[in-house]
Hints:
Layout: E1 11-16, E2 20-25, E3 31-34, H1 37-49, E4 54-58, H2 64-73, E5 77-81, H3 83-88, H4 98-107, H5 119-144, H6 161-173, H7 177-183
Parallel strand pairs: 1-4, 4-5
Antiparallel strand pairs: 1-2, 2-3
Amino acid sequence: MKTLSVINPNAAGIDVGSEKLFVSIAGEDPEVFGTVTNEVYRMRDFLKQRGVTTVAMEATGVYWLYAYAVLEAAGLEVIVVNGRYVRNLPGRKTDMSDCQWLATLHAHGLLRGGFVPPAEIRRLQDYQRLRADHISEAAIHHHTVGVDLGKDKFVSGRFGPSGLVLSNGQAELAIPFPDLAALLKPAALPDPAAAPGPAAAPKVDDGSK
Length: 209
């Protein structure tokens, strides 16, 4: 039987986990690294010292992202493959680990990487996710702040000028809201119990027209 030719002799495979990274070069026995920053840097240095130029890893949750960024910044070609596709390929030996299988397939040029956005786009996506989180947190805060202190009796908007004065004063001086409300100008905090003025009086149709 004719054997497959080796396309990438300097290929490596990485089995990415939440706590450990298992690395094999061209199907050799795995080397184990941690997932903290220093360990990922040690893995990078190990691959470069061994002359590795291309690396394959599975897209496991979000754990692959940091290792991918570090290896990409070091000038290595990194491809991210679908784990289901890799497991369904025939020919794997029973005693072969995941990283050895990845490295073997990659060395023979049998893996096709999925699309990973460039570093600049990934950074923009991080900013967008962070912005969405901030907006969500602000909405939750907007609906919960001040409701247990009766502030709504004195102001209609919790985040308007008067509402912010009350919030800042209560936080800094520990003064109850009723006492703070008395310190504000009447124009800023109108008395909710005051009778409406002429302009606010309702119009009643007596049917004479």
